[in-house]
Amino acid sequence: MASGKSDRKLKVHIVGVGGQGTLTAAWLLGASALRAGLEAVVSEVHGMAQRGGVVETSVLLGGYRGPIIGRGAADVLLAFEPLEALRALDKASRRSWLIVNTHPIRPITVALKLGEYPDLDRAFAELEPQLARLIRLNATELARQAGSPLATNMAMLGALAATGLLPFPAEELERGIAEFSPKLAEVNLRAYKLGQAALRGAPLPSS
Q1: What does pTM read for this prediction?
Q2: Own/partner pairs, 108-113, CB within 8 angstroms, 24+ separation
Q3: What is the pLDDT of residue 48?
Q4: What residue ranges define each of the domains in the chain, with the CATH number in brackets?
C-alpha cells in the first residue's frame, strides 16, 4: 500500500456477473491509484466469480483502512449488469453515482420461467431521483464495436474516468490498461475510449 498526498477519496462498489471482468476492473483501479501515489484497498470477492455467478467487490481509494463499503456509503456504484445494479442499491444513497451497463444477462431462473426480469426502464426511472446521478450506457455494445464483448469492463472504466470523479489522473488508468495485456491493448483501449466518449456525448471514435 502506497502513501498518497491527495486529499481526494473515492469509494467504488463494483457488481456484475462472472465473466464480465469486474475483478480485472477493480484491480486496474487499485493499481492505477497506487501508481499515482494514492493508497488503495481492494476488497475480497463476494459471490461466485465463475461465469454467470454474481460477483461484487469494493475499491476504496485515498486512504481508507478497511475494505468494506457500508450501507449507503458508495460514492459510485459501477454495475456491469442492470439487475445486479438493482440488487446492490443498498450501497447507494442520494449522493451516489450509479453507472450501469444496460445490456442484461438474464439469470437461469428467468430462462427457466421461474422468475421475471424487471422492467428496467421503469425501475431506473423511479430510481433516478434517489441518486446524485444515474448514467446508463450499453457498454457491451461499445465493447463489441471495439472488437470484443469481453472488453465490456474497459468501456465501463472509460465511463467512470469520464465522470471526473477519479482521485488520480485518468491517464494513469489508461496507462494501466495498455500495460495490463499488451496483446489486447488495442481493443481494450478502444473500448475504454468508447466508454469515455459515450459519457461525454462526444462523437464515438471509429472502431
Answers
A1: 0.87
A2: 108/52
A3: 54
A4: 10-198 (3.40.920.10)
